[in-house]
Each structure stands twice: as structure tokens, then as C-alpha cells.
Design goal:
Chain C: Its main location: membrane. Chain C: Belongs to the binding-protein-dependent transport system permease family. Chain C: It is a multi-pass membrane protein. Chain C: It is found in: Cell membrane. The complex is a heteropentamer, with 1 copy of chain A, 2 copies of chain B, 1 copy of chain C and 1 copy of chain D. By secondary structure, chain A is α/β, with parallel strands linked by helices. Chain A is built from 9 helices and 12 strands. By secondary structure, chain B is α/β, with parallel strands linked by helices. In chain B, about 40% of the residues lie in helices and about 20% in strands. Chain B is built from 10 helices and 10 strands. In chain B, a hairpin with a 2-residue loop joins strand 1 and strand 2. In chain B, helix 6 runs parallel beside helix 7. In chain D, the strands form 2 sheets. A 6-stranded antiparallel beta sheet of chain D has the order 2-1-12-11-10-9, with no helix packed on it. A 6-stranded antiparallel beta sheet of chain D has the order 3-4-5-6-7-8, with no helix packed on it. In chain D, strand 5 and strand 6 form a beta hairpin. The chains are: A alpha/beta, B alpha/beta, C mainly alpha, D alpha+beta. The interface between A and C is medium-sized, with 33 and 24 residues. The structure holds adenosine-5'-triphosphate (ATP) (2 copies) and magnesium ion (2 copies). One magnesium ion binds next to helix 1 of chain B.
């Protein structure tokens, strides 16, 4: 079969138009490679991209691990993971970071007892899935039911919103993502905290880290399974070689420094899928 | 030519028209009088087939009218034009378009949907308007016209149908005396010049007397009088209107000459 | 009187003239009508094509999938139907919050709209010269979509019902202000003048002279607004302002496994909207009819 | 009137007034009580605490000003100059703002006597009038400073990070880099970015002056560079606005076209069969009750993100609303005109065309145009959910919370757009229906 | 006590009241006559300060009325009650409340908005209504009353203000002769019993003659007559009304005794 256009979905985390701009180079390469028009879509949240992949209206996206699991759980045949981003140190993982305001006197999860805790987006791996499983294991009696260990557990909607909410004191602590490399006072080398610091939104002196997760696998670049085989192959090769052909573009697509991408399969995410299934159901 | 036989109309318990029988052998100008609720409108609406008769029959030139359905019924309606007390025009459309509505039955549905009428029809409409003295109003919206002018547009629409019969349901009841006269004159002239039958509901005795060849009186749905204007004495009128001895004809009059002497007569009444 | 020219039709020349000018008018009307129709069809067709093209999924491809999502939700909800009543109870507080947002913002907005409408109605205004100022002010309040104010306020005040309430109240004040002032424009000024002649203050004139006249219409408009505001507050919840919209967004983001929650929220939201819709249309009819009588 | 009667009337009046008083005081009392409940239910006392007025100040000042970042990588000593710290706003190599001077010692003049000196060997000095000289030395991750004792609240210092915020600008020093932010009023680079040859040229110069870019005519080149401005993205914004209006237009008109035939089926006069009527009405109630919000969600699966999804959500909801309004209008049509048309022997379609349509057209047009305006506003919100139009740009710009000048720009555009649509629809209403109706 | 000096009101080009000068030294009942558009209403509205004068001044007991602003102006209005042709009551409110509106100026805005009138005021309102013979109507809505009753409510409201002057702008123009007489009698009685000054615009000569101590005639904004009723001959009246020789006083009369002979006189006119 033939395709008449190729549609790339982009996940939240930055200004919609900024994201579109960073992906434009990838779209251009795609058009060149496939010979069909390439369109970029930036839905308002994770769920928008997931729905697009499930409904067959989006052909390719870079998902978070949990978002991939969500897609997989709703329809195992919908998408297949092909590539994963490689960090500067060669790893393909990152961390979920729990943090709080220093002046609130909170320095650890124990201090959070009876306080308000915030997740990001329910479809986020580091902003919800992993911490919701690992935090209860980190201490005696910790649960994620609102009103039990924490006075309340809320969803802020996204990483940026969590950071701002903690910084404002709307919530006492929250989780977001970071590569876990570099220095805390810079907001690590990359991640949501770093972006907030760069934007002048927060002063890392005022924040403390209260928890850090195990390594979380980076989310995969996925292609819709129903795409023609040659299209899938061409796109896989394109993403694989992107760093070699155009590092600048890779920086934009992967939202920061990386060593490009390497192939990945569903096996990498089976534990995440299981975790999500256990946590959310479905 | 027109034969109405024991025509009856019931609304639930109420018998609005009760076994009305009228025979008309040649085109005449006929006035129907009777007080409000006597059944005049109902009778005319059955004639035009706007409403169905409960019992009885209407035949016209041997054709059974009450039995017509669908296209045949609409064809009959196109041959039997009707004029209403409230004019029943389309106020937002221009005068000529309103007149052209008289041709709807003859033209294809599709063309008329887009207001596409043959040019010859448009010319004829304007001629008819001219005949009624309101050709200058042709491009105006119907709602912009005075009552008398609107009624003349309604007559023009009726003429546009080129009907054998014109039914008029109290055509002058919402008009002032001056306009009432113009409209009645027009109807009479059409009757005389074109030889069309005209049946008009009228609520004033003197109008009926003055314009009609034959007067039919109705009371409570029944026909209680049928004769020439001359036979319509004050005593008969009292019967028709069910009025007591204090009945004054002038009380229902709108004609101008009556009006002129009105003041005087009223003064007399007070004396 | 020209009306009396029944027996004397116009001369042949003038009738030709009337005919020609009428035909010209018909031509012109057909031309304009056709042109407008063509432009409209063109706009619709090309607009549809642009929208279709800029959408991820095409219209014709997606049409047969419309039922997919509701089917999934309903299937799961049906499977777990035993839990539904419990979930409805669980989300009831969120519903109350949504209704509260709508109610408070309607009250505040209507009060502000009332004052603004009186200040910007000719004949009633406290400062007649400032009428254009107040009108402009209302126009701007009306033009700002609730989401703009809500998002900005969320940034300053943090999430929760208050930003949504303020946002909706501001919009409501503008919208009701305009409608109120249209009603007030038709108010009878005689009672106002009567009160003025006794030395009443502006507030007294408005409260005693104008309000009794316009109250039924005002109330009817305010009810309609309340109905609209319930929807608005649900939508604002979706972008972070609390209430039922927030819960709906989360349960939908979770996807399968929590679709029973989504279904419960659907039911609450749908039920509430229909309930208040019916309620307000009944009372509105009664108010305006009672007024006409 | 006898004295006894008069007393009776008086006591009646007293009773009347106590009733009125009860009502006049009771109603506001109930409302007041409700507000008190809301005061606590919405946690307003807590809100006063939570409210972050710094954010409000940031928002207010950022929306009409911009900052230029001067960054030194403390490791390599590399300098970067960029408006808003964005790559797109970076000064081309070899250029820098004129308030930065020096080569070995780079001096940044923040104005008002505040100077920042970036010295070799990872040293930084900040000179603040009426406070003194702050010296900082980065060593690995450590920062050593000459700051001692109680610090004013505009200085935040730890061994890893120093932040100084003054009205003139902001300085942050960490082990890895030193950043200076200098604030200026206005929307910098609104017209042209640094890489455009037209940057820094006035309008007069561009319009009437010599050719600036040898390859292009001035006007064509300037318009194209402005249109493709990477910072402000005027082209994308224009598309987004267009998409929003498109959603409103298509949704409203489509709904009207769909609702018109359906509304006949819901009007008593035209649909004598009770079942059809009730079914159509329930359908209207259903699509209206489900609400555009939920429709967007349902449709997103089938059609994916984009303007079409938003259009359809508006279309479906408004079909219900229009259906209700239209069928009410149809129930109130004047029978006389229909009868007049019927009496000529017109066919049923002709009866509708001339008896009914002319009557309801004014009501329809007025409603459609009114909804067109209000749907422009709805489309902004729906776009934010389905991913299309100016609404998405606005929400994302607000959520990332840094480009407040862009937020301000979008808000101005949105308000302008709605006001234009409002007056347009008002003008059309007057034109098509006439003032009298 | 009341001094009106070259009082002028212009609406654009139009001079509605042109340098009117009136001196009143003691509380009198004064009638102002003149045909429609003569400026009578405008003059009264300026007196009550419902509209501002363009030029000239009004002084009352030495106080400059035209210069008053804000609260002082409202205080003057409370001392100078006004009665209107269309009654200008609040139709949806009950009669007592309408009468109590006369005390608005004396009570705080807040209290009046919540209907917190002192009981003594309520009782006084009812006594005033009783004096005007309509105490039974007290709890009814004003709109439920007949025109004559409504005008008496308006007078009651005026009395509630306990004013020095009562201005009445064609108080009987929308009343039938019977009610007109009741209302004029009431005004006269108030003038005589309470000693309040009454200035009434009247459009009928005979009413002015019958009830007033002093009559002022206006024409085209100017005062063209100022004298006792006795001085108001038919010739003078012709001047005021600008009428020709066919001027008949009765044509503008509404008094009852005139009406009785009206029919006869009219019949005579037709002869
Ligand atoms: N659609 C209807 N349903 C029920 N009763 C009707 C209907 N139309 C007419 N009637 C009744 O039938 C009777 C005759 O009515 P009709 O209108 O024919 O009288 P009319 O002589 O034309 O009176 P008018 O001078 O008032 O027009 C009246 O009692 C009326 O109430
Ligand atoms: N608000 C206004 N604006 C413009 N012209 C006005 C205004 N009010 C009154 N006039 C004009 O001033 C003139 C005097 O009007 P006024 O109402 O005082 O006359 P009047 O003697 O009371 O007549 P009437 O018997 O009709 O009440 C009239 O020509 C009127 O048209
Ligand atoms: Mg009739
Ligand atoms: Mg007057």
C-alpha cells in the first residue's frame, strides 16, 4: 500500500511553536526521504498523541516510556518502538527527581508526611508512573492514596507546572525528570529543572532534592505498525542516522544534547508496561 | 356550475357549518353575511379546500371538489383564488413576487425555489398591479404598504391565478372606509369585466347590499337567508344577526356615504 | 389621493418603465444573491478542505471511527457497572465545585453587569459622558475568552476554582452588561423622572425606578448565563482550574482501566448540563411570559 | 374613612412592609451566606497565602519587556549573547550589545551604575552602588565570595550558586557558568531577528532607502523576513488565528445547515408524528448536553489533532443549540402567510419556501451571526484542547511560563480577533436583517 | 418668595423658554396656560431642576436655585414636589411604597433600598392617602389603579415630601372629566388648607379660570399674559393660543359641567 502523507506527533513540554520549529528539520528530511508531505502536530497533552497513534492519525512520535505503555496496553498492535535516544554518557536512562522548597524545612520524604505531594501528567513515566511505584517502597508506611501518608496528592498537569507549583508553595513537594548528571544547582545537565533554571523561573538554591528514582529507560521513537514496511524501514534509518547527518537537528528533536539514537525493541519496556498495568490497570 | 350540497363541518362537538346547500348556475357576485362565528370563514375555507368537509359535497362543473386529493386538489385551489381579511401576503418579499405566488401551482417546484419566474409572468403581474392602480409599488416590500394597498396586492395575486372563482373572506374588515371602498370596487369590477364568480364574506349589511347580486345569510352554521339584496329587509337582517329591536344597521356600516350621514344619525339617536 | 386611481391605470409609457426597472432590480438581486451564495459555498468548501488538510486525520478516513472511543469507554464502564454508583458519589464534590464556580461567577458577573448596564444606558447613566467608556469596557470584558484570564490567574494564584471563577465572572459581567443594557434601553423613564423630582439619589432612582421594570428580563438572562457558565467552568477545569473538568481530563489521560471513572464523570457532567438546561429554560419561559402578561 | 378603618389599613401596611423588609434583607442574606460558604469552600484565606505576587510582577513586567542574556561558560570562557537566551535570538558571531565592553575583562553595564565584570580565571565581580563590590570565584562546583553576614533578600548565595537580583538586571553564578540578564522595555526582535539584513533599520529607510540586501527588493525582502521571523513567528501566528476563525466559521455554518432541516422535524407544526418530534428533540438535547468539551475528546480519537476536530466539536454541539432555537422559531411562525400561499394551490415545498422560510430567515441569521462571534471565543478554548489555532499557542506559552511577551502578544491578538468578529457579525446583522428587527 | 428672572432654555437652535420672568410674593395657586409646545413643561422642569436652565435664575426665599448642585439640588427637589401628566409612579410597586418615595431624600440610600422606612412615615403615608380618599388602595400595585387614582397617589407622594411648592405638569390631561375634577379639587384644597404654593400647567382655559388665583399665559416660550382669571378675556386667550376667530373655548374644555352641554353645543356648531 501507499501513503499520501506522513504525520509526526510531538509531545508536550515546551511551547507548541518552539517544538514545531525544532522538528521542522526532521519533517524536511522525512519529506525528502519518503517523497510525501510531512506534517507536524502538537496536541495539548500526552493523551492527544496517544489517541492519534491509536486512531491512526499520527504515524510517528517520540513517546515517554509510560505513554508507550499506555498505547501498548490499549492496542498492542498499534505501534512498534524502533529507536531510543542515547545520552552523552551512552546510557539510555534518566531519573525521576523528587524535590521541595528548602525554606519549607523539607529535606526528605519523611518530612513530606502530612504535606501535599504533586505528580505531573498521569501519562508521564517520571512524573507519575515510576514515583507512584517507587516512592511507597522508599519508606515505611508511605502510600500514594490522598489523605494517608500525604495530606493530598494532586496532578499539576505537567513537569513545568509541578516545578512552578512547588516553587510557589502551592504544593509542598513534587516529582519531575532530570538526567541526573551534572550539578543540582544547575538543575542537572538536562531535564525539566534545567529548563526552568535556564528560563529564570526558579533558583535552585531554594530547592532541595528529596528523592531520586532508579534509572528509567528513555521513551522510544515509535512508528505505527500499519505503515508500509519500506516506510518504516526508511524512517528507522533516518532517525538512526540523524545525529551523523545533522547534530543540530538532533539537538532540537531530542530536546538537548545526545549521541543520537539507537535501535530498541519492546523488550526494553516490558517492565514499564507491567508497572503501568499494575498501577493503573487496563 | 357550483353546487354545494349539505356541506357540514364539525370541530369536535361544535358544528361550524351545518348542512349548507347552495346552487349557483352562473358567475355571480355573492355576499355571505352573518355575525361572528356564524361559519362564514369555515364555509369559504372548505370551498378552497384549505380545510376538509366533514360531510356533504361540492361540485364545480360536474367535478367533485370535496373528493380531490394531492395534485388535483392543488389544481382546484389554483382555479379558485382566495383573499383573506389579514391579506396573508409574505411581508418580507416584494409586491411582484407576492403576485407571482399566484402562479406557483403552474410552475415547476425547482424553478420557483430560486425565484425563477418566466419574464412573461412578471410582465403580467405588473399589468395586473397596474389594473389595480398600484404598479408604482411593484418593487417595494409588501410590509411597507398600507392595508388597502396590501389587500389589492392580494387581489392581484388572486387574479394572477386566473381563477374561475374568487373567494374573499371579509376582505375589507381591517380597512378604513376609503380603502374598503377601493377594494370592493375592484372586486366588483373584476367580476363584471372578467366574468369571474366572486363569493365574499362581509360583515356589513350595506356593503353586501350595494355590491352583491345575491346575498346569503348564515346563522350558527346554517343558511337562514338566500336571496337578492332587495329581499334583505331590516327584519330579515335582524333574524340573521339575532339582534333585538335596538338593532341599527349603521352600527356595522363602514361605507363612506353612510359614514357621512353617520354623525347626523347618531345625533338623532341621542335625541 | 393616489390610492383612488383604481379606474385609471398608468399610461403605457410609465408601465413600461416600471416593468423595466423591476426587471433590472430582479436581475441585480439575482446577481448579488448568486454572488453571495457562490462566495459562501466557496468559503465553506475551501475552508473545509483547509481544515481537513491541516488536521492529522482526514474527515472521510475518520468518520467510521467516531464510535471507537465511546465504545471503549462504554464497554469498560458496562463491565464495571457495579462500581459506577460509588464513582458517581466519589466525583460528586468535584461536580459541586463546578456548579459553585458557575453560580458564584454568575452572581458576581450579574451584579457587575447590572451596574455597568445602568452606567452605559442612555437616559439612566450616572455620568452620561462616560457611556462610551463603560461600553468599550464591557466590549473588552466580553471579548477576552475565559481561558486567557484563567490561565494567567492560575499562574499568579495557583490552580483551583478561584481563577476560573474570576475569569468567568469577568466575561459574564461583559456579556450580561450588554444584554442588560439592551433591556434597560427600553425601560420606561417616567417612574425614574418621578423619583428624580422627589430628590432621589441615582442609586435610589435605579433601584426603585428601573429595577422593578427590568428584573424579570434580567433574571431570565442571568439564568441563561448560569447555564452557559456551567459549561465554561467544566471546560476551564480541563485546562487546570479544578472541578469536574480536571477529573475528566485525568481519568481520560489514564486511559483503559480508568474508563469507568471517565464514564462516571461523563454521566455527572451530562446530567448536570441537561438538568440545568431544562430548569433554566422552564423558568425563563415563565419569567418572560409572566412579564408579557 | 373612619379612624378604626384607618388603623386597620395602617396595621395592614405595617405587615406588608415587614414582609417586604424580610424579603429585601433575606435575599441578600441568603446570597451573603452562600458567599461565606464559598469563601471557605474555595479556601480564599489559603489563597491569599498561596498567591504569588512575584509571579504577577514577573508577568506584568515581562509582558512588555525583554531581557538579553550574557553568558560565560566558566570552563571554556566562551561568551554568548542572546535575546531571551534563545538560539534564535543569539547575536551573530563577533557581534555583541553595545553595553558590553572589553576583551580580557568583559564589562557589562547594566545601567544605574551597576557593573558586572567577567574576569579571567572564572572570577566575577559585581559592582552595585550603595552596596559595594561583590567578588565571586568559581572553583569546580564551589563558589567562594566576599559576601558575609546577613544578606539582603535580593541576594541568594550558597557555596554552589549565587543569585543577585537588582532593578537593573540579574546575575547568577554557578560553577559552570555566569549569566547576566539585562532588561529592556519593548518587544525586541518583533520585526526582524539579528540574522535579517533589515535588523536595525527604520521603516523609512526600508521603504524609501537604498537597497539593503542586494538580492531582494527592500519591501519584498523586509516583508518576507518579518513574516518568517523565527522569534515571533508571525506566519504561524497568522495561520493559527486563521485556523481559529475557520473552526468557528465552519462549525457555525455547518451546524446551521444541519440544524435547519432537522428543526422542521422537531417543530409541532411540521412534524405531526409525536415520536419523530420527541426523538429529534432528545437528539438536540443530547448533543447539546454532551457539550463541546466532551465532543472534542471523542472526536480526537477518530480525527486526530487539528482544526477539523475542533470544527466538528463546535458543529455537533451547535447543531443541538440551533436545532432547539430554530424549532422554537418554527413553532411561532405566522400561519397566515402559509395559508395565503396554500390557497393558491402551491406544492408543499413551495409552501415551506414562501410561507415559512421568509419568516424565519431573520431569526436564523441573527442567531447564526451571534453564534459566529461567540464561537470564535469557544474555538480558542477548543483549540487549546484539540491542538490547533491560537488557543494552543496561548496555553502552551502560558504553561511554559517564560515568554510572557508572547503571551501578551497572543492575548492582544485574541481580544482583537474576537472584537473584530463581534463588530463584523453586528454589521452583517444590521445589513442583512435591517435595524428594525 | 419665588423669583424667576429672565429664565431661558434652549435646545440647540430652538428656544423652548425665552427670558421668562415671574415674581411670586406669597403662596398662590398659579395656572400656566398655552398651547402645545409653548414651553410650559420646560419651565416647570427647570423649576424642579429636572433640567438645567440655559440662562437666567430662579431664587426662592433668597436662595439661588439654579446654582444648586448634587445634594443641595436634591434637597431643593424634596422641597418642591412635582406631579406629572402620566403620573410617573413606579407601576409595579404598591401604592404606599410609591407615596413613601416622597421621603427618599430624607432617608439614607441604603435604608430605602431595603424598604426600611420608619413606621411613622408609613402611617403618615396612609393618612395622606386617606385625606385624598384612596386609603383602601394602599396595598395594591400602582398599575392596578385607575388614572384618577394614580394621579391622587402622585399627589400623595408630593404631599409626603411636605413641600413648599407643588408643581403640576398638566395633571389632568390624561384623565376623564370626573377624575379631572377630583384631582383639581384636591390640589385646590391642599393649597387652601396647607398654604402651599401650587403651580399647575393646564391646557384648558376654564380649569385655569376656575381653580387658579393667577394665570400665566405662554406662547412660543415667552410669557404673553400674567394676571387674574378675570383679566383673561376671550380676546387674550385668542392671543395666547394664536387661534383665529373660530376659536372656541369649549374645544379645549374638560370640565364636567361644560361637557354636559358639549353635545348640544357641538351639534349647534354643525348646523
Ligand atoms: N380550527 C377550529 N377549531 C375549532 N373550532 C373552530 C375552528 N375554526 C372555527 N371554529 C369555530 O367554528 C365556528 C365558525 O367559525 P368561523 O370562523 O367560520 O365564523 P365566521 O362566521 O367566519 O366568524 P368571524 O366573523 O368571526 O370570522 C366558530 O364557533 C368557531 O369558534
Ligand atoms: N429634550 C428636548 N429636546 C429638544 N427640544 C425639546 C426638548 N424638550 C422640549 N423641547 C421643545 O421645546 C418646546 C417646548 O416644549 P414643552 O414640552 O415645554 O412645551 P409644552 O408647553 O409643555 O407643550 P405640551 O402641551 O405639548 O406639553 C417644544 O417645541 C419642544 O419641541
Ligand atoms: Mg371569519
Ligand atoms: Mg408639556
Amino acid at each position: 500500500q501507499e501513503i499520501t502523507e506522513f504525520r509526526i506527533g510531538i509531545l508536550g513540554g515546551e511551547n507548541a511553536q518552539d517544538r514545531m520549529n525544532s522538528y521542522q528539520c526532521l519533517a524536511d528530511y522525512t519529506t525528502e526521504e519518503l517523497g510525501v508531505e510531512t506534517k507536524l502536530f502538537a496536541p495539548a497533552d500526552y493523551n492527544g498523541v496517544i489517541q492519534g497513534l491509536l486512531g491512526g492519525t499520527i504515524d510517528m512520535a517520540w513517546l515517554g516510556a509510560s505513554a508507550y505503555a499506555a498505547t501498548y496496553l490499549q492496542d498492542p498492535e498499534a505501534v512498534e518502538p524502533v529507536m531510543v535516544k542515547v545520552n552523552l554518557d551512552g546510557s539510555i536512562g534518566y531519573h525521576s527527581i523528587g524535590f521541595a522548597r528548602k525554606d519549607a524545612g523539607i529535606t526528605s520524604l519523611e518530612d513530606m508526611q502530612g504535606k501535599v505531594f504533586g505528580f505531573g501528567d498521569p501519562n508521564s513515566t517520571s512524573g507519575y508512573l515510576i514515583p507512584s511505584i517507587e516512592i511507597p517502597q522508599a519508606g515505611e508506611g508511605i502510600t500514594m492514596e490522598p489523605g494517608e501518608y500525604f495530606a493530598d496528592v494532586v496532578f499539576t498537569g505537567g513537569h513545568e507546572q509541578t516545578i512552578v507549583a512547588v516553587n510557589n508553595g502551592d504544593i509542598d513537594g513534587g516529582v519531575t525528570w532530570a538526567d541526573g548528571q551534572g550539578n543540582w544547582e544547575d538543575g542537572y545537565n538536562s531535564g525539566a529543572l534545567r529548563k526552568a533554571v535556564d528560563a529564570g523561573l526558579v533558583d535552585m538554591n531554594e530547592l532541595v532534592e528529596i528523592w531520586k528514582s532508579e534509572v528509567i529507560p528513555e521513551g522510544p521513537v515509535v512508528l505505527r505498525t500499519a505503515l508500509p514496511a519500506d516506510v518504516k524501514e526508511k524512517m528507522t534509518t533516518l532517525v538512526d542516522n540523524l545525529y551523523e547527518t545533522d547534530p543540530e537537528c538532533t539537538y532540537g528533536v531530542f530536546a538537548g544534547d545526545s549521541l543520537g539514537a539507537k535501535p530498541v525493541t519492546h523488550a526494553t519496556y516490558t517492565s514499564i508496561v507491567e508497572a503501568r498495568k499494575a498501577e493503573i490497570g487496563g | 356550475m357550483l353546487k354545494i350540497d349539505t356541506l357540514t363541518k364539525r370541530f369536535g362537538d361544535k358544528t361550524a357549518v351545518d348542512a349548507a346547500t347552495i346552487h349557483v348556475t352562473e358567475p355571480r357576485m355573492i355576499g355571505i353575511i352573518g355575525r361572528s362565528g356564524a361559519g362564514k370563514s369555515t364555509l369559504l375555507r372548505m370551498l378552497n379546500r384549505l380545510s376538509d368537509a366533514t360531510e356533504g359535497s361540492i361540485t364545480f362543473d360536474g367535478e367533485e371538489i370535496t373528493a380531490l386529493r394531492g395534485a388535483a386538489k392543488r389544481d382546484w385551489q389554483s382555479r379558485c383564488a382566495m383573499i383573506f381579511q389579514q391579506f396573508n401576503l409574505v411581508p418580507r418579499m416584494d409586491v411582484v413576487s407576492n403576485v407571482l405566488h399566484g402562479t406557483l401551482n403552474k410552475r415547476s417546484t425547482f424553478a420557483t425555489m430560486f425565484n425563477l419566474y418566466p419574464q412573461s409572468d412578471i410582465h403580467r403581474a405588473i399589468e395586473i398591479l397596474d389594473r389595480l392602480g398600484i404598479a408604482e409599488q411593484a418593487p417595494k416590500r409588501a410590509e411597507a404598504l398600507s392595508g388597502g394597498q396590501q389587500q389589492r396586492v392580494a387581489i392581484a395575486r388572486a387574479l394572477m391565478q386566473d381563477p374561475r372563482i374568487i373567494l374573499a373572506d371579509e376582505p375589507i374588515a381591517s380597512l378604513d372606509p376609503m380603502n374598503a371602498q377601493i377594494v370592493m370596487d375592484a372586486l366588483r369590477r373584476i367580476h363584471e369585466e372578467d366574468g369571474r364568480m366572486v363569493i365574499a364574506n362581509l360583515h356589513t349589511l350595506d356593503t353586501a347590499r350595494r355590491y352583491c347580486d345575491r346575498v346569503i345569510g348564515m346563522r350558527d352554521g346554517r343558511i337562514v337567508f338566500d336571496g337578492t339584496p332587495a329581499q334583505l329587509t331590516t327584519g330579515v337582517a335582524r333574524d340573521i344577526y339575532g339582534a333585538g329591536a335596538d338593532f341599527s344597521e349603521a352600527a356595522t356600516s363602514t361605507a363612506i356615504e353612510t359614514l357621512d350621514s353617520h354623525e347626523a344619525r347618531k345625533a338623532k339617536a341621542y335625541v | 389621493m393616489t390610492d383612488a386611481t383604481l379606474g385609471t391605470p398608468n399610461g403605457a409609457r410609465s408601465i413600461d418603465h416600471i416593468r423595466a426597472s423591476y426587471l433590472a432590480q430582479v436581475q441585480r438581486r439575482r446577481l448579488y444573491g448568486g454572488l453571495v451564495l457562490m462566495i459562501f459555498v466557496l468559503l465553506m468548501v475551501s475552508g473545509f478542505m483547509v481544515a481537513d488538510d491541516r488536521n492529522a486525520g482526514g474527515f472521510w478516513d475518520g468518520l467510521h471511527q467516531i464510535g471507537d472511543y465511546p465504545a471503549e469507554v462504554l464497554a469498560e464502564a458496562w463491565q464495571k457497572r457495579a462500581d459506577l454508583p460509588g464513582l458517581v458519589v466519589e466525583f460528586f464534590p468535584a461536580l459541586i465545585e463546578t456548579i459553585n464556580i458557575a453560580a458564584v461567577s454568575t452572581l458576581i458577573g450579574a451584579a457587575a453587569g447590572l451596574v455597568l448596564s445602568l452606567l452605559s444606558t442612555r437616559g439612566l447613566a450616572r455620568w452620561p459622558r462616560l457611556i462610551p467608556v463603560f461600553r468599550r469596557f464591557m466590549d473588552i470584558m466580553r471579548a477576552v475568552p475565559e481561558i486567557v484570564i484563567a490561565l494567567v490567574l492560575i499562574f499568579v494564584l495557583g490552580g483551583g476554582p478561584v481563577p476560573a471563577m474570576i475569569a468567568i465572572a469577568i466575561h459574564t459581567a461583559g456579556a450580561l452588561g450588554k444584554m442588560f443594557s439592551e433591556v434597560a434601553e427600553n425601560a420606561d423613564l417616567k417612574p425614574v423622572e418621578g423619583l428624580a423630582s422627589t430628590g432621589a439619589t441615582w442609586a435610589q432612582k435605579m433601584w426603585l425606578g428601573v429595577l422593578p421594570q427590568v428584573a424579570p428580563n434580567y433574571l431570565s438572562y442571568a439564568l441563561l448565563r448560569f447555564e452557559i457558565n456551567i459549561r465554561a467552568s467544566a471546560i476551564l477545569g480541563f485546562v487546570g482550574a479544578g472541578g469536574l473538568g480536571y477529573e475528566l481530563r485525568n481519568s481520560m489521560a489514564w486511559g483503559p482501566g480508568r474508563f469507568d471513572e471517565a464514564a462516571a464523570i461523563f454521566i455527572l457532567l451530562f446530567g448536570t448540563i441537561v438538568f440545568f438546561d431544562q430548569l433554566s429554560s422552564r423558568y425563563r419561559n415563565r419569567l418572560t411570559e409572566g412579564h408579557a402578561a | 374613612m373612619s379612624a378604626a378603618d384607618l388603623d386597620l389599613v395602617k396595621s395592614q401596611a405595617d405587615a406588608l412592609f415587614s414582609r417586604k423588609r424580610l424579603f429585601a434583607v433575606g435575599l441578600p442574606g441568603v446570597i451573603l451566606a452562600y458567599f461565606v460558604y464559598i469563601f471557605f469552600a474555595f479556601d480564599l484565606p489559603g489563597l491569599a497565602q498561596r498567591a504569588n505576587w512575584d509571579n504577577a510582577v514577573t508577568l506584568a513586567s515581562d509582558s512588555w519587556s525583554y531581557k538579553t542574556h550574557v553568558t560565560r561558560e566558566n570552563g571554556s570562557g566562551e561568551m554568548e549573547y542572546a535575546v531571551e537566551g534563545e538560539r534564535k535570538g543569539a547575536y551573530p558571531d563577533g557581534q555583541r550589545p553595545d553595553w558590553v565592553t572589553g576583551d580580557d575583562v568583559i564589562t557589562v553595564d547594566l545601567g544605574g551604575g551597576t557593573l558586572v565584570r567577567l574576569l579571567p580565571d572564572r572570577r566575577t565581580e559585581v559592582e552595585i552602588p550603595e552596596f559595594g563590590l561583590i567578588k565571586a570565584q568559581a572553583e569546580g562546583r564551589e563558589i567562594t565570595t566576599n559576601l558575609t553576614g546577613d544578606l539582603p533578600d535580593w541576594i541568594s548565595a550558597s557555596s554552589r550558586r549565587v543569585g543577585i537580583t537588582t532593578p537593573e538586571g540579574r546575575v547568577t553564578i554557578t560553577g559552570s557558568k555566569t549569566e547576566v540578564f539585562n532588561y529592556f522595555p519593548g518587544w525586541e526582535l518583533f520585526w526582524f531577528t539579528f540574522d535579517s539584513p533589515y535588523h536595525g533599520h527604520g521603516f523609512g529607510e526600508i521603504l524609501f532607502g537604498d537597497r539593503i540586501d542586494p538580492d531582494r527588493g527592500n519591501i519584498a525582502g523586509a516583508v518576507s523576513d518579518w513574516w518568517n521571523n523565527a522569534m515571533w513567528r508571525h506566519r504561524d501566528v497568522a495561520w493559527a488565528i486563521g485556523e481559529t476563525i475557520l473552526m468557528a466559521f465552519l462549525g457555525t455554518m455547518g451546524a446551521a445547515m444541519l440544524a435547519l432541516p432537522l428543526s422542521f422535524m422537531a417543530a409541532k407544526r411540521f412534524a405531526p408524528v409525536m415520536l419523530i418530534r420527541a426523538a429529534t428533540r432528545r437528539l438536540f438535547d443530547f448533543v447539546r448536553g454532551v457539550d463541546a468539551l466532551i465532543w472534542t475528546v471523542v472526536l480526537a480519537r477518530a480525527f486526530g489533532p487539528g482544526p477539523l476536530t475542533g470544527t466538528l466539536a463546535i458543529l455537533i454541539t451547535d447543531t443541538g443549540t440551533f436545532g432547539k432555537i430554530f424549532s422554537e422559531a418554527l413553532e411561532n411562525v405566522d400561519q397566515k402567510q402559509i395559508e395565503g400561499i396554500s390557497s393558491t394551490g402551491a406544492k408543499p415545498l413551495q409552501r415551506y419556501r414562501f410561507g415559512v422560510i421568509p419568516q424565519i430567515v431573520p431569526i436564523l441569521l441573527a442567531q447564526i451571526l451571534y453564534f459566529l462571534e461567540s464561537n470564535t471565543r469557544s474555538a480558542t478554548i477548543i483549540g487549546a484542547i484539540t491542538g490547533g489555532g491560537i488557543g494552543l499557542m496561548l496555553t502552551q506559552a502560558i504553561q511554559t511560563q517564560k515568554d510572557w511577551e508572547e503571551v501578551a502578544y497572543y492575548i492582544v491578538l485574541i481580544v482583537g480577533m474576537v472584537m473584530v468578529m463581534d463588530s463584523l457579525s453586528g454589521w452583517l446583522r444590521g445589513k442583512l436583517i435591517g435595524r428594525s428587527d
